[in-house]
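How it folds:
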Amino acid sequence: MFWATNICRRKLGQILASLAITGTVRSLFGMEQSSVPSQNATAGASDSPEDGKSAEESAPTRPRLREGTKLFDLIGTVRQTGRRYTFFVAANSNRLVLLENLMLERILRAQASHVVTIQWKISGTVTEFQGQNYLIIEHALLHASTQEEPKPKLP
């Protein structure tokens, strides 16, 4: 009986923790009406260019999410940035570098067959490496396109 109560307490703690993380992530990515000040901002970066730092280092810091954070139903666009692909969130100026996987390959294939900009509804897991967040896409849905879709060509 004791072990069952202990398991229930652990499960309840996990559920409450995941709800708190989800609420924080949704507010960080502009999915709620209220804005929460970023508590996860990268430490040590300065907003003033007078420190002698380059423009990249003096740029405003972005909120950093913890490893394993789940993101649900973010709406935005996928674009190539250098040699990587980046997801730009439509609700605000946040962006996440995407890790290559089969889901990203399917997104790129779908985008190649359209001449218009496509918005996606993406869910996935955040990873962190050397102070930067990356997103592994687990689920993606075509959300909208900016113009009427082209008709398929007949052979």
